[in-house]
Design a protein that fits this description.
Helix content: 25-40%
Largest sheet: 5 strands, antiparallel
Shape: elongated
Strand content: 25-35%
Distance between the termini: 58 Å
Strand order of the largest sheet: 3-2-1-4-5
Length: about 160
């Protein structure tokens, strides 16, 4: 009975954790519905340098911490009896929360590129965007798309 409850709770927490890690793409080839049919300023230029970086979520959801604490607390409550069970619950919840927080961060971090571009007008700047979908190389000619309303810029082939 207890084992069945623990397995059910673990499955529920895992589903919540995975759902909380979903985030919109920040790659250069993905657009949101609100970006469609909006005018963007277009420049052209040449890639000067590319560097692989990691993109972290701006604001962690806390789902990983909460889910880990619940699972850890339930698992820890099965240790000993009486006060031992209470202490096990508390220690399990703390350890589970720490592990869940790290799990959420590692699941939500994404590979990204820092692309340094020199425009045909002579301006040099860098854009960080999620990698995937397009390949870039130094010396390659690219388009730079800027949404003046949102202040966002992306590099595209």
């Amino acid at each position: 009975m207890v084992r069945s409850r623990i397995l059910s709770m673990t499955a529920l927490v895992a589903a919540a954790l995975l759902a909380g890690c979903a985030a919109p793409s920040k790659s250069g080839h993905t657009y949101t519905a609100s970006e469609a049919r909006r005018p963007m300023q277009v420049q052209t230029g040449v890639i000067q340098a590319i560097r692989e970086v990691r993109m972290e979520r701006d604001h962690p959801t806390g789902v990983g911490t909460g889910a880990g604490a619940v699972v850890g607390g339930v698992a820890g409550s099965n240790i000993g009896g009486g006060k031992g069970s209470i202490i096990g619950s508390v220690l399990g919840a703390v350890a589970g929360g720490v592990i869940g927080s790290h799990a959420e961060q590692s699941l939500s971090d994404r590979p990204a590129l820092e692309i340094t571009v020199r425009t045909d007008a002579g301006r040099t700047f860098a854009v960080v965007q999620e990698s995937g979908g397009e390949s870039f190389a130094p010396g390659q000619r690219v388009r730079i798309l800027t949404d003046p309303v949102r202040g966002t810029t992306r590099v595209s082939q």
